[in-house]
Amino acid sequence: MPLSTASEKIHGFSENLHSTFASRYVQTSLPRFSMPANEISKEAAYQIISDELMLDGNPRLNLASFVTTWMEPECDKLICESLNKNYIDMDEYPVTTELQDRCVNMIARLFNAPLRDGESAFGVGTVGSSEAIMLAGLAFKRKWQNKCKSEGRPFDKPNIVTGANVQVCWEKFARYFEVELKDVKLRDGYYIMDPEKAVDLVDENTICVCAILGSTYNGEFEDVQKLNELLEEKNKKTGWDTPIHVDAASGGFLAPFLYPELEWDFRLSCVRSINVSGHKYGLVYPGIGWVIWKSKQDLPEELIFHVNYLGSDQPTFTLNFSKGAGQIIAQYYQFIRLGFEGYKSIMENCRENARILRDEILKTGRFDILSKDMGVPLVAFSLKDKSQHDEYEIADHLRRYGWIVPAYTMAPDAQHVSLLRVVVREDFSRTLAERLVRDVRKVLLYLDARPPKSIEHPHTAVASVNEQPKPSRNSDRDHLRALSVFDKTLNSVRAFKVWKKNALHKTNGVC
Ligand SMILES: *Cc1c(COP(=O)(O)O)cnc(C)c1O
């Protein structure tokens, strides 16, 4: 451990004789509520924080998230070298700005935006899809307001139509920017937005319909083509011009490579904007998303700010001003490093690994698969028989092997369906898939030998409206359970967690 002489002078005792672990820093607890009065050595600060962070989960085993957990060391180096660059200083860092523009151009063409050779696309890099969605939503709201004003109609009751399976950022958009969210409810066995029902909900105050390319719940692609057809028809009949936004947070970097024939993007007439998370299948670490508009007309000019604080005129349309430049640079790195072929093979690998994982999970004979072959490479699965144990217990026990696999319930009106979801990312190899299934089998064996859950979970309560709870199969097991105070405590903690997960259903597992 390097020695510190600075701290010796400041604190007046001979700290340079001790390693960090022999120093007083590991003996006192660090202040958590107010800033400490004195400094500590950089070695101690580093050690203490890095040790505490060891208790976080291991990102590579975090199968809950779509977000990138691995990049090449060369790209890590580029990111580290640009940590001190502020993206917004466009005049000072013109090359970074240029890289952003190149990324926007490339993504727009990947999404088949109608652009001539050499023509610049309309879009911007954001912190993630959430910010991208706020910006796209604001553009729709402003366009709709302008239209209402020009027609002398009231413009105080905008609404947006989505499936109930939308990611929480759409609810945020609706609440923060005062737009009513009209959601098409899910139903048993159908876990995405039904395009017919969505178009039925559209009225003259609908600022847009949002379709999801890759539902966070089961990875399924919504039928944007069908939605477009129905909306075109309705627009023709009513004279409205209701547009579509595609939330392609995860699917935007999958569909162009895996399903180039699938029409979901700017090839469709009503699709006016698309968002994608650079930090999901764009293969960049967290902190980057993109929003692309079909044409200049789709982005109202009054939302663009022109500032010149830092030099020349800079047009900006973002919610935040400053942010790190590293993620934009990293996105450009991935584009030129991998190219179309590189992305295609990575996405094909992910799809293949997801297939293998699905088949192995099916082979246990204990699960139904809720994800689809065409969609985000993930496996969503639910227990066939939940009378003894449920998905939450499986998730809890998998954690003991280091795996982070979320258990959650579907969106309304399919909340009675609970499931587990494993997202297959670039760094999830076949070996890991095989190991995971082995561990799932071990957990099943372990749970089979355990007494069933004692407290009825809220989602089973919902299910029991249609279906009486099954009587317990094994009275010996019940007896055993009754004797086990420990189990009761454990189960009530678990039941509380389940309740919390149900009550806050948008905030777990779906990121
Ligand atoms: C992840 C996700 C979001 C939110 O994106 P962030 O990049 O995490 O802000 C929105 N919609 C869908 C469908 C997603 O999968």
Q: Residue ranges: pLDDT <50 for 5 or more in a row? A: 1-12, 458-489, 502-509
Helix content: 25-40%
Number of strands: 13
Q: Which strand-content bin applies to the residues?
A: 5-15%
- Report the CATH architecture of the largest domain: 3-Layer(aba) Sandwich
Cα-based radius of gyration, to the nearest Å: 26 Å
Q: Give me the side-by-side strand order of the main sheet.
A: 1-7-6-5-4-2-3
Largest sheet: 7 strands, mixed
Question: Which molecules are bound besides the chains?
Answer: pyridoxal-5'-phosphate
Secondary-structure-derived class: alpha/beta
What is the helix tally?
A: 15
Order of helices and strands: HHHHEHEHEHEHEHEEEEHEEHEEHHHH
CATH superfamily of the largest domain, by name, is: Type I PLP-dependent aspartate aminotransferase-like (Major domain)
CATH class group of the largest domain: Alpha Beta
Shape: globular
Measured between the Cα atoms of the first and last residue, the distance is: 39 Å
What is the arithmetic mean of pLDDT? 87
CATH topology of the largest domain: Aspartate Aminotransferase, domain 2
How many separate structural domains?
3
